[in-house]
Structures are given as structure tokens and as C-alpha cells.
Specification:
A 7-stranded antiparallel beta sheet has the order 8-9-20-11-16-17-18, with no helix packed on it. It is elongated and about 195 Å long. It is an alpha+beta fold. α7 packs antiparallel against α8. It is built from 10 helices and 20 strands.
């Protein structure tokens, strides 16, 4: 390959980093050329990967491949400068033959001419059409062929950006074959890799080789089809996510409805059992009273007969001591008259209390509830489409709508009680504190009232009791006694629920009403309906009703709190008024 001395200059073949002629020149994506070692060191010493000339940034470090054509030009330029001292000393004329090349050998142009389907001619035409404005040079494979015919001529375009047969612009993005330094324009379907033309005619000659561009277009169609399938699969899964969320909503609604149904059912069962229990106790008590009365009557009759028998025995003893037969016979005739006595042989006090009928009734009741229990799941699942989740919420949710702000009144707190700064917590200390002995303050019972009083309406608040062994919660009237010993009962203006010794729950009536709870509450909800005279208590976490007391309020009532004594640290946890969560 020969060049016109007017075409090449040293400035065109200088690396802008080392300012010397290219050594193993490479082209980067922006089109500028550098020595491979120079650009590599430049990028290694810089934080950003960019072109030293145009400063274009690259997101990742480009793969560097030697530009074979530019390297060939550079090597020939170095040979010309070494012979003449300057490229301008090279005369115009025929191309310089390669050293050591035997006469009549086949050059690169002749090998390219034998590609299948005249691929070389197509590539040459494409190269010419893509570089019409670039400088052109003529390259001859040999001065004369063996038979004297003119040597084939190859027109090659010289570009200062990228020197490839496929054109300067397209060649920028085409990697080179590491073995032959030619563009990887073909694709081997057997080895699934891109190859150059020379690889296709050597080690891949027996393989199915296609144009890499056409292969990529075919693969792009496959990618499009695959992407459509992925989009469809994504759509199906999004629909499934929606279905699962909808199912979860329905399950929650069913759970709330079943909770309500089960609470109603079990509540009815408990009330029926309590009623049966009350009836049973009443029957037992009545029968015991009747047996007691019968026993008293029988004992009285027996005692009277015993008295008569003892008198007759005493009279017989006296008659037996008479010595005069006349007097004896007379007295004997007076005492031989039979006594009017009852036959007690078949008389006994029966032990039958008459409870058998009650037990039979309870068994029938349990059987009926057992049948209803089997029907309960089916009843709970019958949720009408128009039924909203709000309607199916249990009662604990509805009363929470009447939540009020409740704080503690320090003026009423017993001297041993400690209140938090926000008046939301109270616990009992070991000693008394110096506080004013005002009329509102409790001086014997360790309790405190709320600052907010109620004289009408409905009100609800929640108190955390977890960790305590003893406590009292409820409401109290404004006029209650606060000094000395206090009799706590509704008649004295106190309505509250109590816990003693961790497990004994009771409502404080004049005779305490024991409340056996299977679930130990951690948080108590207190609901007051002033007009109805209702005070109700709930297990907030379990959403279970504990107890309701009905009375009549005639004055302002206040929330009542008692953490009870701390029992040397066993009951030192505080009572905490917590926010109501809807």
C-alpha cells in the first residue's frame, strides 16, 4: 500500500497525549484516536472516563481494540520517514511491494475477491458509498500478474476517524477480530459468536455463517416477542396480586363478622348457662329449705312422743313400788291405757333435691347450642355483597367512636400516688409525699379521679393494666366520701371493676360479683352511657365484653383509678391511660 506524500503528514498521525506517532492506535466511541497505552494510562489516573480532546464522558470504560488500518498506515509512515527523513520525499507512483514477497504470490485483494457471493465487492461498494467525500488512494496487489493481465485494483477510503472497509461511521462501533484485526461482520451459528471474513473462510468454513447484522435483526424480533410474553406474564401476576388483596379484604370482613357472631353466640350460651345455674341454685335452695322444714316438724313430733314415753316410764316405775295390791291394781288400770303414738318405721327425710329436671334441661340446652355451633360457620360466611366492613365490626369498634380525652386530677390523688407529667400514668410508691390535705384528696384509699367529669352523653376511654396484680377501674360520683375508710358499692357512688391476686376479677357491688375470665386483659376499655345509667368494661385486645352494670346517675361522675399498693414491688407497674386506636 502506497500513499501520496501530499496526503500524509506527521500531524495527522500524532497521539494528542504523548505527542508522538501512534503506537498500536485505538479508536474510542467519540471517533478520536490514541495510543492504546496512552489512553489506558490516562483513564487509569482519572476519576472519570472521558475523551482527552472533546471531553465526552462515558458511563463505563470502553473496550479498546487496535485499529488495524490506522496501524498499517502509521507503520508505513514510519518506514517512509526512516528512508527519506520525511513523508514529502516519497515520489508519486506505484505502490511499494512488500519485502520478501515472492513473485506471483496471492495478495490480500485476491483473497478477498474469492469470498462467497462476491461479499468483497459488496463491502467495497458500501465503503465507497459511505465515504464519497474522503480522500481516495489506489492500491495494487502486484505490478503485473503472471500472465501479463493488469493487476486488480482496490479503491480504499482513507478517513482520519476510522479506517475500515465498512465506512468510517459504522466502523466506530464494530469490534475487531483479535486474530486478523478485521471487522467482526459475520456470525457463526454453530459457535454462537461474531467472526470476521477471514475466520469464516478458515476455521469456521464448515459452519453455518450468516451476516451478523441480519442475525441481530432476527434476534431483535425474538426479543420483541419475548418482551411481549414477559409483559403478559407480568400482567397476569399483577391481576393475581389484586385477587389476593381482595381475598384478604374479604377474609378480614368474614373474620370480623364471625367474631361478632361468635361473641353473640357464646354470650347467649353464657347467659343461658348462668340462668340455668341460677335456676339450679334456686331449686337446690328451695328443696333444702323444704327438707329443713320437714325435719324440724318431724323432730318436734318425735320429741313430744319421747316426752310422753318418759312420763309413762316414770309412772310405771312408781306403780311397781306399791305393796298394797288394791292400790297397785287400781293404779295399774289407770296406766295401762295405750299411748297415741305415730308409726315412724317407714318415715325418713328424703335426700332428693329435685335437681334432676334442671340437669336434664341444661343438657337439652347444651345439645341445642351444640347444633347451633355446627351451623355457626355457615351463618358467618353468609355476607351480603352490599354489607360494608363498618357494619360488620363488633361492638368494641362502635363504642370507640365515643372516645374522650381523660387525664388524672392531682388534687384528688392519695399522698402515696405518683402521677406522670402528662397526667396519664399513676403508680403507688412506698411512702407518703408532702401534699396539701385538701377536701378533694383521698387520704386512706390509694386512688385518684379523672379531671374530666360527665353529666350527660356517652364516653369511652382505655387503660393499660398489663403487668399488675391488683387494680380498680371505673367511675365515681362527685359527692363520694374521700376521707377515712370507704365502703365501695354502687349505692355509695362507686362503679368499678377490680383485680386481686392476678386472677380474681370482680365488680364491686355490696356483695362482690365474681367474674371468671378465661382471657386475662392487658388493656381495659371503659364505656359510660349517662342517660341509660350504663357502665361497661371490655377486653380491648381480645374485643370481648367483660361486664355491664345498669344503674341511675343523678350527679356528675368522674373516671376512677386505683393502682392499689405496690406490694413491695410485685405490683409496681403503673396504670396508663392510652390513646384509643380506631
Amino acid at each position: 500500500m502506497s500513499f501520496s506524500p501530499s496526503f500524509l503528514s506527521e500531524d495527522q498521525l500524532l497521539c494528542s497525549i504523548c505527542l508522538d506517532v501512534f503506537n498500536n492506535p485505538v479508536s474510542i466511541p467519540c471517533g478520536h484516536n490514541f495510543c492504546m497505552a496512552c489512553i489506558g494510562k490516562y483513564w487509569d489516573s482519572s476519576k472519570h472516563c472521558q475523551c482527552p480532546l472533546c471531553k465526552q464522558n462515558f458511563k463505563r470504560k470502553p473496550d479498546l481494540h487496535i485499529n488495524g488500518t490506522l496501524r498499517e498506515i502509521t507503520e508505513q509512515f514510519k518506514q517512509m520517514t526512516s528512508k527519506t527523513g520525511s513523508c514529502r520525499g516519497v515520489g508519486r507512483g506505484r505502490a511499494v511491494e512488500k519485502e520478501g514477497r515472492p513473485q506471483g504470490s496471492v495478495d490480500e485483494t485476491e483473497r478477498l475477491g474469492h469470498l462467497q457471493g462476491d461479499r468483497f465487492n459488496d463491502m467495497n461498494q458500501k465503503s465507497s458509498s459511505n465515504n464519497k467525500t474522503g480522500p481516495v488512494e489506489t492500491v495494487t496487489a502486484n505490478a503485473d500478474s503472471a500472465d501479463g493481465t493488469p493487476a486488480p485494483v482496490l479503491t480504499r477510503v482513507a478517513s482520519m476517524r476510522r479506517f475500515t472497509l465498512s465506512g468510517a461511521e459504522k466502523g466506530m462501533n464494530l469490534p475487531l477480530c483479535p486474530k486478523h484485526h478485521r471487522n467482526l461482520e459475520l456470525f457463526c451459528q454453530y459457535d454462537k459468536e461474531c467472526i470476521c471474513v477471514e475466520c469464516g473462510q478458515t476455521e469456521h468454513q464448515s459452519h453455518n455463517v450468516t451476516c451478523a447484522d441480519k442475525e441481530w435483526q432476527s434476534n431483535k424480533m425474538k426479543i420483541s416477542i419475548m418482551d411481549s410474553e414477559i409483559q403478559e406474564m407480568t400482567k397476569e401476576r399483577l391481576q393475581k396480586v389484586g385477587e389476593i388483596k381482595q381475598s384478604l379484604t374479604e377474609i378480614k370482613m368474614l373474620g370480623e363478622r364471625e367474631t361478632q357472631c361468635s361473641m353473640q353466640f357464646i354470650g347467649a350460651l353464657i347467659r343461658s348457662i348462668e340462668c340455668s345455674q341460677a335456676g339450679l341454685l334456686e331449686v337446690i335452695e328451695m328443696n333444702c329449705c323444704s327438707a329443713e322444714h320437714k325435719a324440724e316438724v318431724m323432730i318436734k313430733e318425735l320429741e313430744e312422743e319421747i316426752t310422753q314415753l318418759r312420763k309413762r316410764s316414770a309412772a310405771l316405775g312408781k306403780v311397781a313400788q306399791i305393796k298394797d295390791y288394791y292400790a297397785g291394781l287400781k293404779s295399774y288400770s289407770d296406766i295401762i291405757m295405750p299411748l297415741s303414738m305415730k308409726d315412724w318405721a317407714g318415715v325418713s327425710l328424703t335426700s332428693d333435691l329435685g335437681t334432676k329436671a334442671v340437669y336434664i334441661s341444661i343438657c337439652q340446652l347444651l345439645e341445642r347450642f351444640k347444633e347451633e355451633l355446627h351451623k355457626l360457620p355457615a351463618i358467618c360466611l353468609l355476607v351480603s355483597p352490599e354489607q360494608s366492613p363498618t357494619k360488620s365490626l363488633p361492638k368494641i369498634k362502635r363504642i370507640q367512636e365515643y372516645a374522650v380525652e381523660v387525664t388524672l386530677d392531682p388534687h384528688t390523688a392519695h399522698p402515696r400516688l405518683i402521677l406522670s407529667e402528662d397526667w396519664k400514668k399513676v403508680w403507688c410508691s412506698e411512702r407518703h409525699h408532702l401534699v396539701p390535705n385538701n377536701l378533694e384528696r383521698f387520704d386512706r384509699v390509694v386512688c385518684v379521679l379523672g379531671r374530666e367529669g360527665f353529666s350527660s352523653g356517652r364516653h369511652y376511654w382505655e387503660v393499660e393494666v398489663g403487668g399488675k396484680t391488683d387494680w380498680d377501674l371505673g367511675v365515681a360520683s362527685q359527692s363520694i366520701s374521700r376521707k377515712g375508710k370507704i365502703m365501695v358499692s354502687p349505692s355509695n357512688g362507686y362503679w368499678f371493676l377490680s383485680l386481686r391476686d392476678k386472677n380474681n376479677y370482680a365488680f364491686r357491688t355490696e356483695r362482690s360479683t365474681a367474674l371468671p375470665l378465661s382471657l386475662k386483659p392487658q388493656k381495659i376499655g371503659v364505656f359510660v352511657d349517662y342517660e341509660k345509667g350504663q357502665v361497661s368494661f371490655y377486653n380491648v385486645d381480645a374485643k370481648v365484653h367483660i361486664y355491664t352494670f345498669m344503674d341511675k346517675f343523678s350527679e356528675t361522675i368522674y373516671p376512677f383509678f386505683s393502682p392499689c399498693t405496690n406490694k413491695t414491688g410485685k405490683n409496681d407497674a403503673p396504670l396508663v391511660i392510652t390513646p384509643v386506636l380506631f
